[in-house]
Design goal:
The chain has 372 residues and is an alpha+beta fold. It has helices spanning 3-16, 20-39, 75-104, 174-184, 186-189, 219-224, 229-237, 252-259, 286-290, 295-304, 318-327, 366-369, and strands spanning 44-49, 56-61, 67-69, 110-118, 123-126, 131-134, 150-161, 164-170, 193-201, 205-212, 242-247, 267-271, 276-281, 307-312.
């Protein structure tokens, strides 16, 4: 060791952001092991490296704590060989740790990478300094992952390993849809629009519920964008996945009716205790409300957190509605006082008659006309 070696260590400190003290401490530990291995030392010892001159000294430690320098005359050659191996290994370790630190806080974030390899076992995505793993169960049905193509993925886990960080990404996670809208809609980043919930069946259809923190901002319109430009960008990134954007409401009945779009349902009666909802839809809207193989109602249930039962107007009687209301702890509509001629005929989320005045030319008030 000499001054040139110290200069080399300082250059590594600048380029790799590894403190010189850490490099010297690692080197001293390795040199002590080399000394023990090559000289058969039977007593305690320590090795020092002068941070200015690079001079090495080996000290034997007696039982009473006193020290005596025992540096071998040919120890410089062994030290040079050891230093090169140790420093290179330490650099690799620090770089792995730095990469892990860079990604450990990115769980729940989006990364963009280039597909390097794809087969039945896994797909590798090059993120620049490190590769991410896209397992088969996190791949969207019907998507092709061609070598060299670029894609965005959602980071679900970052693991620490001896070979560096192992990053697991997903193309099916609902968080991917949420993050994509956050990238495309400035109003979300600015806090004017909030994504309340997401329901997704990757590769087929998704629903998101949005609300506005500014009465002058339409949350649905903000997410759709001018002529559908914003939602079209998200659909393109998800390779054609259909997306329904609905307005969130703190009124469960209104929210459930919106969540079942594009279907236009009639009455929605809810049971707050069991979080179940009875939806009565016009006959021509029933199949649309349920969706192909039940997909629309299934996604609406995920989006709202309510169990939804849909019946057509021809399938259900007022007696069955009253039975549901009794189960919910509400009085049947038939037992309520008769509504005034201009009173809204809809039921509230509690199953009671709405007290608001009906709008002109309608049997419902302005609020319930939107869900009729």
């Amino acid at each position: 060791m000499n001054r040139e070696m110290i200069d080399a260590l300082k250059q590594i400190e600048r380029e790799k952001n590894i403190p010189l003290e850490v490099l010297l401490e690692t080197l001293e530990t390795a040199l002590l092991s080399a000394y023990k291995r090559n000289y058969g030392m039977v007593h305690e010892a320590r090795v020092t490296v002068d941070p200015e001159t690079g001079e090495i000294a080996v000290f034997a430690i007696a039982e009473d704590g006193s020290e005596e320098e025992v540096t071998p005359s040919d120890f410089g050659r062994i030290a040079a060989q050891t230093a090169k191996q140790v420093i290179l290994q330490r650099i690799r370790e620090v770089e792995r740790d730095m990469m892990y630190d860079d990604f450990k806080d990115r769980e729940g974030d989006i990364v963009t990478g280039i597909i390097q390899q794809s087969d039945q076992r896994y797909t590798l995505v090059d993120l620049g300094k490190v590769e991410a793993l896209l397992p088969p169960h996190e791949q969207a049905p019907g998507e092709r992952y061609d070598h060299g193509s670029r894609l965005k993925a959602y980071v679900i886990e970052v693991r620490k390993s001896t070979k560096g960080p192992q990053i697991i990404v997903s193309r099916t996670h609902p968080g991917l849809l949420k993050r994509l809208f956050e990238l495309e809609v400035p109003e979300i980043d600015e806090g004017f629009v909030e994504i309340k919930s997401v329901a997704r069946e990757a590769g087929y259809r998704s629903k998101i519920a949005v609300s506005s923190n500014d009465e002058n901002v339409d949350p649905v319109g903000a997410c759709v964008g001018a002529k559908g430009s914003r939602v079209r960008m998200v659909v393109g990134e998800l390779r054609g996945e259909k997306i329904d954007i609905v307005k969130w409401s703190d009124d469960p009945a209104v929210f459930i009716a919106s969540a079942l779009s594009p279907a236009k349902v009639g009455r929605v009666v809810v049971n707050d205790v069991t979080k179940t909802a009875l939806v009565i839809a016009p006959e021509d809207q029933l199949s649309l409300a349920i969706g192909k193989e039940g997909q629309n109602v299934r996604l609406a249930a995920k989006l709202t957190g309510w169990r939804i039962d849909i019946k057509s107007e021809q399938q259900i009687t007022e007696e069955e509605v009253d039975t549901f209301l009794r189960a919910a702890g509400n009085a049947p509509a038939a037992e309520e006082a008769a509504a005034a001629p201009d009173q809204c005929v809809a039921l509230t989320t509690k199953g009671t008659r709405c007290k608001k005045k009906a709008t002109s030319g309608s049997d419902c008030c302005a609020q319930h006309s939107q869900t009729a």
